[in-house]
């Protein structure tokens, strides 16, 4: 799915109005009825809705939603926030239409005019959407604060009020509605994808409002969100007369004393990727551990008992993954450097291997099209980008992928897969249950196995991240989000 900036979304809105054709007021009506349908499905009549509306089109959506909910028999109160002297024509027309359901509008000019809140009240935030063009001040700031303080449950329409939609917005986040649900029109907004901003949306629900498909197709954007639809066909169905040799042979180089579990996790995930054969190179002390926990894998033992010191590449290997639990010893660095010179097949670099390359500044040796899978900490070591600044981190990852002709899979809640042409594919699956040690080892084993099957590096990264996240979602349902460990993810790979 393509993701767009606020100005591109306006262009698509406009194209819809002109080409369908549909009037702006009818488009607002369509947007509002998709939201009210969703709300009616999700809430019974024991709740009462306090609908807060700005004076632009987001507010117009709110007024129309209020009308639909009143028609459906809900208790509804409507509050218009007087942040400017007059509303848009869509706003004014929807104010008039409230008379059809005998709803009054309460204009809020000061915080003290906010309603009393009881435990049945659910706030609907239709104050500002993609039109946010400056930080909230005055009455807007006060109202957002009052919503934050007063309501446990908030449904934001399109965008939580106060949240910039774009990644390059110059508006510093100050006051912002923290939504329970965000009903967003047609596309999640770019800011939803990054830490520090995405937290404000709560659960995101995409409302299809039938925007112009041709325009969506024609407008270029570097940003994409992977959905189940996007990964269909990346991995081919297995052929009836195929054999293991048809599905590649992966080499995993992982583990040192005290971190052999990382090698086990990566190996088991690689086996579950569909790769025909998996060989794991480990320190010799790991032999029994690996053979018992992953009997399907072949083991190649290092001369060293406790760490990896050289990595011969067996014949007919079709992809190599290096890094999980590798350790940071000089001898392992030497093994890594020799591997970089020898390797002729797709390569994935993760974890300690990324660290070793960073502290020795060995990036010039990186083979083109390699897949790197850093988390924020590893990416900080690679580039020096501050840990807390998710937008700069994303930009730096895009630059890095371009400069080094590689794929950077920046891990996080919406992992960002950056390619060498500047595209970013956010991963749309996943669950916070996955925020636990070893999850990343599973991902790197899985992607290595996909590379081994001949899937191109970008597609392997996209599919691997998707399957990994789906496993997290499924296991969180079955085990409960607190009890998930990385091994569980392997059991749920499909
Ligand atoms: N254009 C269309 O036909 C559609 C628009 N839709 C809705 O329209 C919204 C966008 O509408 P608008 O462009 O009217 O913008 P908003 O309703 O988001 O904002 C209204 C106006 O408030 C002002 N404003 C922004 N930030 C402010 C601040 N911090 N302090 C004071 N004033 C501020 C701006 O002048 C802005 O244009 C979308 O988010 C969506 O909810 C949907 O109904 C779908 C169709
Ligand atoms: N809140 C979250 N939501 C979705 N996925 C997450 C979340 N937190 C972590 N993950 C995923 O879990 C994995 C964690 O990887 P990583 O931090 O490298 O773990 P480790 O180093 O312990 O193996 C990544 O793939 C990341 O995308
Ligand atoms: K809003």
UniProtKB/TrEMBL annotation:
Is Plastid there in the keyword field? no
Name what cofactor the protein needs. Answer: Mg(2+); K(+)
Per its record, the protein catalyses: (6S)-NADPHX + ADP = AMP + phosphate + NADPH + H(+); (6S)-NADHX + ADP = AMP + phosphate + NADH + H(+); (6R)-NADHX = (6S)-NADHX; (6R)-NADPHX = (6S)-NADPHX
Q: Which residues bind AMP?
A: 411-415, 440
**Would the keyword rRNA-binding turn up in this protein's UniProt record?**
no
Q: What is its EC number?
A: 4.2.1.136, 5.1.99.6
Residues in YjeF N-terminal domain copies: 9-217
Q: Give the residues the record marks as binding (6S)-NADPHX.
A: 57-61, 129-135, 158, 262, 325, 375, 441
Q: Which UniProt keywords apply?
A: ATP-binding, Isomerase, Lyase, Metal-binding, Multifunctional enzyme, NAD, NADP, Nucleotide-binding, Potassium
Q: Which Gene3D superfamilies match?
A: 3.40.1190.20, YjeF N-terminal domain
Which molecular function terms from Gene Ontology are attached?
ADP-dependent NAD(P)H-hydrate dehydratase activity; ATP binding; metal ion binding; NAD(P)HX epimerase activity
Pfam families xrefs: Carb_kinase, YjeF_N
Q: How is the cofactor bound?
A: Binds 1 potassium ion per subunit.
- One GO biological process term: nicotinamide nucleotide metabolic process
Protein's job? Catalyzes the epimerization of the S- and R-forms of NAD(P)HX, a damaged form of NAD(P)H that is a result of enzymatic or heat-dependent hydration. This is a prerequisite for the S-specific NAD(P)H-hydrate dehydratase to allow the repair of both epimers of NAD(P)HX.
NCBIfam families according to UniProt? yjeF_cterm, yjeF_nterm
Q: How does it assemble?
A: Homotetramer.
What's the protein called, per UniProt? Bifunctional NAD(P)H-hydrate repair enzyme
**What would be the name of the gene that encodes this protein?**
nnrD
